[in-house]
Design goal:
Blueprint: H1 27-37, H2 40-52, H3 58-73, H4 89-110
Helix pairs in contact: 2-3
Length: 111
């Protein structure tokens, strides 16, 4: 028996309806998070030691530096460029598929 998962127009679950995880986040994941946070100072110290180490590889130093910067300032935002081609996405994919098919047919006819 499957239960229907209902969402509103924005994609959020409707209250009172079933969801993929009706019991919510497990208590174990919260406990693991709390335990990991206990090592924050030690972890930051270890990362800073790797960054300043003369014997650590360049790769290790860069990864440690990136980890520190990510935690201090957050990860860089990815820039996405949206191009409006005048048709919806699925129609555009169909157009590309037809163009590819026509090109492939032409190349088969020539050879």
């Amino acid at each position: 028996m499957t239960t229907e998962i209902k969402r509103d127009a924005s994609g959020k679950f409707i209250k009172g309806c079933s969801s993929p995880n009706p019991s919510g986040r497990s208590k174990a994941s919260k406990r693991i998070s709390e335990l990991a946070k206990a090592y924050t100072n030690d972890s930051l110290k270890a990362l800073s030691e790797i960054v300043n180490s003369k014997t650590a590889s360049d790769t290790a130093r860069v990864q440690a530096a990136n980890s520190l910067l990510d935690r201090a300032y957050g990860r860089p935002v990815q820039q996405n460029e949206n191009v409006n081609v005048g048709v919806n996405y699925l129609d555009y994919l169909d157009m590309l598929a037809k163009e590819t098919t026509e090109e492939e047919l032409k190349s088969v006819e020539v050879s």
